Amino acid sequence: MADGTTLRTVTVTGTGTAEAPPDLLTISVGVECRRASVGAAYADAGTASAAVSAALRQHGVAAPDIRTSGLNVRPELIWREGDGQQVAGYVASSMLTVRVRQVAAASAVIASVVEAGGDDARLNGLELDFADESPMLARAREAAWRDAAAAAEQFAALASATLGRVLSVAEHPLAAGPVPVARLERAVAADAIGVEPGQASLNAGVTVVWELLD
Asked: Which three-class secondary structure state does DSSP give residue 210?
């Protein structure tokens, strides 16, 4: 400092967490068709995939939220003694990544997709998330700041000082909180499977340097 005195500081790291039910469900759904010829496998996979897409749209899923993420046609091989490897048929598969923005309607959407695809339908996984995590992150940051400020106040009191100016603030990443895997529960007296979103959390961390005043 200009007068030759040493600036006293206290550096504290605070953490905070915010929780909320997820409002976005991403479904990986597809079709897989085994047929005697490659043409039949490909055509039937296209028909089944179109039926699945139509079912999604009937439940209000918008076109930008339906994305083809995989398309594959391959021979199905078997081993026969004396003849070696033989082609037993062909498998055509198509995968869709679907974002469902009304989590409460997810079980009805899934049931409709499975019905539309029939025996060729494949449900490969569900993932819960937030359409916009900004409000939750803001709450987590506020909690992290309060945590840091409380600790700094305590340290200042222990040092027989008071807190002065904030000299620096640095946010640092923390490991994400556990995102719940969507639980699938069979509904009573129905063939549909219920999706339970539970709660998800976001974490924030902040390191703050305060000036200590006598």
From this structure: strand
pLDDT digits (tens, 9 = 90+) for 156-201: 999 999 999 999 999 987 765 544 444 434 333 334 567 777 788 8
Report CA-CA distances (Å) from 131 to 13, 53, 128, 134, 179: 29, 21, 10, 9, 14
Widest distance between CA atoms in the chain: 96
Give CATH 3.30.110.170 domain extents, the chain.
Answer: 9-21+133-213
CATH class name, domain 9-21+133-213: alpha beta
Task: Note whether 196 and 183 are within 8 A (CB).
Answer: yes
pTM of this prediction? 0.67
Cβ-based neighbours of 172, under 8 Å, separated by 6 or more: 13, 205, 206, 207
Which CA distances in Å does 122 have to 26, 94, 205? Answer: 15, 10, 40
The strand ranges marked E within 81-182 are 84-100, 121-129, 162-172
Q: Which CATH architecture fits 24-129?
A: 2-Layer Sandwich (3.30)
